[in-house]
Amino acid sequence: PASLKPEAFPAKLWRLVNSPRVRSVRWGARGQELLIDEQLFVSEVLDAAEGDGSVFKTKSFTSFIRQLNLYGFQKVSKGLVVAPRRLSGAGSEGGGRATGFLHHFRSPHFCRDRPDLLVHLKRLTNANKVKLAAGLALPSRPASHLQR
After folding, report:
1. What Cα–Cα distance (Å) separates residue 108 from each residue in 16, 33, 34, 83, 88?
2. Among 12, 39, 80, 121, which has the minimal tally of Cβ within 10 Å of its Cβ?
């Protein structure tokens, strides 16, 4: 089995949520949920890399959510956010306040301070769905250099 590649979706997501520069994706209070501010995520991550394309090779938030679902993340809730935002530069909308949707997702294999669990995140292919439905375990990949 191949190790988790740095360009794989789970590795990219892990780097984003743990980056102090990224404000749109963060851990929940207990480190077991992924919180995504939709409006800020689109502008900060999906639309950010004009020439090279997005980190996730899509500019669509719906496609990003589809990727989360394909890797087994489950939506916990979605709520309205009305919170102060520290926007860089002049012209912060609404005096620095913004509204949008805050999406909560959870996966038992995506937890703060547990990069060792990332190897268990598998893209749910049709073959993997059949194995899961039959109660079979999916093979794990060995830890990559990112997780050591």
Report:
1. 18, 9, 11, 28, 34
2. 80
